[in-house]
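::Amino acid chain::
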Amino acid sequence: MMNKKINYRSILETSDGNLTKLHNIVLKALEEEELISEKLKNNQDLSLGEKMADGVASFGGSWRFIILFSVIIFVWIAINTFWFHNRGFDPYPFILLNLMLSCIAALQAPIIMMSQNRKEERDRLRAEQDYMVNLKAEIEIRTLHDKIDLLITEQMKNLFDIQKVQMESMDKLSKTLHEHLKK
């Protein structure tokens, strides 16, 4: 594990001071052998109200709700119009039904808004996590680029050294050949 720490530290070293904080986060995640996206996950426990708001918003925006509510309204109107011959507990123009629908709408709207606000917060956190993962990937790509540059530089140095040795050998051979031909 100590070798890995040294290796990661050398990979993440840079002259840019703005990346120090990010490098520390990335280094810590690498040392703990965790993905940054897993490290940044925010495991929130939802309160009862938040769970209810999500449930109401989910149910209120579904076909089940629309169909169920349409059936209830149809049954309400049918009972009051046909069964009680328009002398039921809520005769035409169905004022009690209108009052109930208004109350449901008045309660459902803020609950849906609370759920949407929580969804917006989750989306913001997800965007931050994506940013950190992308930043880590960028650093890793830069590191790979630096490694490739280093390898190419070392390879070029080795090639120049080999070329120098070859040139010296060729000069020696050339001198030996000239001396041999002069004799």
About this structure: Residues 1-6, 14-18 have pLDDT under 50 and may be disordered. Helices lie at 2-12, 20-31, 36-40, 48-60, 63-83, 95-182.
